[in-house]
Design brief:
Pathway: Carbohydrate metabolism; D-ribose degradation; D-ribose 5-phosphate from beta-D-ribopyranose: step 1/2. Belongs to the RbsD / FucU family. RbsD subfamily. The chain is of the alpha/beta class. Helix content is about 35%, strand content about 20%. It has one domain (about 15-135): 3-Layer(aba) Sandwich (RbsD-like fold), CATH 3.40.1650.10. It starts with 8 loop residues before the first helix and ends with a strand.
């Protein structure tokens, strides 16, 4: 049995097979997921697992160099938006690598999910709690 933080087999495989600039989406319970994109559905009930808990676990095992967020996230859900920014800042300190943050409209965000290798659906029910991670390199 794995003893690291991430024990979900589908997400472990996804992270292990990401190449530089590959993208994965981590989303709330309501984001539409493209039919052609792999869906990793973690949602059990409202709020379980949470968006931030899922972010923390995925960041623990993956190197990212960029994120994409919806503009609406900042104004509609400012507390969760700030919590995400804090997790990204913690990851930058831990790895010594900069993470670029790009904001787009929610409609553009939904279109961009089509480029993701997979979409990880959480039980989060906070509006606009969605992020696209762009894989970086560990060297």
């Amino acid at each position: 049995m794995k003893k690291s933080l991430l024990i979900n087999s589908e997400i472990s495989f996804l992270v292990a097979t990401l190449g530089h600039t590959d993208e994965i989406t981590i989303c709330d319970a309501g984001l539409p997921i493209p039919d052609a994109t792999q869906r990793i559905d973690l949602a059990l009930t409202h709020g379980v697992p949470s968006f931030i808990d899922t972010i923390k676990v995925i960041l623990s095992e993956s190197q990212i160099e960029g994120v994409v967020l919806a503009d609406e996230f900042k104004s509609i859900s400012p507390d969760l938006h700030q919590a995400l920014l804090e997790e990204l800042a913690n990851d930058e300190k831990r790895t010594g690598k900069t993470i670029t943050i790009t904001y787009v409209s929610h409609e553009q965000f939904k279109d961009k999910t089509h480029q993701s290798r997979a979409v990880v659906r959480t039980g989060e029910c906070t509006p606009y709690a969605n992020v696209i991670f762009q894989a970086g390199v560990v060297f």
